[in-house]
Amino acid sequence: MKIVIVGGGISGFAAYLALRKHLPQPPGGDHEYTIYEAYDTDETTTFRERTKHDTHSSTLIVGGGLGVAPNGLHVLERLDSDLLHEVVQEGYMVDHSNLKSKHGHLLMRLSSSGICPSSQTSNDRSPMHLLGISRHALWRSLRRRIPNATIVNKRVSSVTANPNAPNTITFTDGSPPVSADLVIGADGLKSIVKRALFPETDEDPYPPHYEGLVGIGGFLPSTAIHPLLPPGSMNFLFSGNGFFGYFYAHSTPSAPHRSSPHHISPPGDTLAWWSTYSIPSPPSPQTINPSTITQDLRTRYASWTDPIVKTILPTLTVETVWPMWTSPPLPTWDRDGIVLIGDAAHTLPTTSGQGSSQALEDAEALSLFLAHYLHQTYKTDTHVSEKEALKLATKKYTDFREPRVREILDRAQTIQNTKRDVGVFWEWVMYLGMWVVGFFPAWVGRWQRRVFDYDLPGEVERVLREGGG
Predict the structure, then answer these.
(1) What does the pLDDT look like over 237-287, one tens digit per residue?
(2) pLDDT tens digits, 178-217
(3) Domains of the chain, first to last
(4) How far apart are CA 345 and CA 186, in angstroms?
(5) N or C: which end of the chain has fewer CB within 10 A?
(6) 238 and 99 Cβ atoms separated by less than 8 Å
(7) Where are the membrane-spanning stretches (predicted)?
């Protein structure tokens, strides 16, 4: 079977590794995999070089940092325990999040840990924490496990679904089209593959939506911060004129447990920071002057008295500028052996804290459903064709994933409204609301457990068992 993955980002690479792990061997030989990516995928390429082109990924926590929640780390663990430990070593584990006012007053403390009941590769039942890591470091760890020959540096121009034959992929360079039995769209918010699901119109019927917010961020030395910021926390500061966040970017190199997702290690010498605030029209990352934005940021937050913000404002430099985009809910994620994952299917706001984790869940869930139906097809006594098995698997995947992602999106959009500019009265109403909710940790924790402790393999097995698949 020919499998094409369009997009060489986190979701595309995770999909490749998950498929290689789970798909059964076909009767006539191994499956044939190709990943098409428009930009450079050399693992030595820096984050700045990889993001010099326009990007529409919402998996970013701006500044090049992101959070991989416990449910996402469990996907990595089930995929390859060595991969999990390598990724953890590249970042910093946090076991709680602090929600604060602009003056540094703690409004709410939330646990950032979770346990998966059916973890397949670890006997350690202690909680996994949340990982703060640079996006490039996570991408690079996945990239190291992809053979160079599998990745083709080409930009896809179109994908055409064929109900009774292989699907067709064309390219912008005019090279000959290729056919594939399975096409996985991991090509982000402005997905070309998505257009194949809705061929009735020439225009994108579900274009991305600018949220009216822009994110900026970067990294800076944390030596002066250590006395002010205890280990193991990710910090979120809210106000009426913007939002600010920061966390240690990695552990100290000498920490004995720096590759363990179950431990909080002494922090290293780098702090990751990011900020979000309202801008009516989406700016282009290529046309903005970072020095101007840096000065605007200092002016915007000049009245803040949080000690860490006050310490880093004079020295920080804006490294990235990202408009916040989301995608509207799609009526379907699949058609005739074409299927979407990650941002191509559901671009979540950064407030979800789940962009990368949900992309990883997509990759694992899709591979498990495909493995189940293809295994049935490759039996000698079955009458289900490979094409029909792909249709059944991708439809089951869509029906399985969409409700969970929709629930996370709905909650994230509510939280996102707290980052928009408001007056002093509503700022204090927001503070009061967070402070009151902080007195009911069991209520807040119930939602987090549903997200963090998610048993994806167990849920897939339940769906297949109940559906008679």
Answers:
(1) 998 888 999 999 999 999 999 999 999 999 999 999 999 888 888 877 666
(2) 999 999 999 999 999 999 999 988 888 999 988 888 888 8
(3) 2-467 (3.50.50.60)
(4) 8
(5) C
(6) yes
(7) 425-444
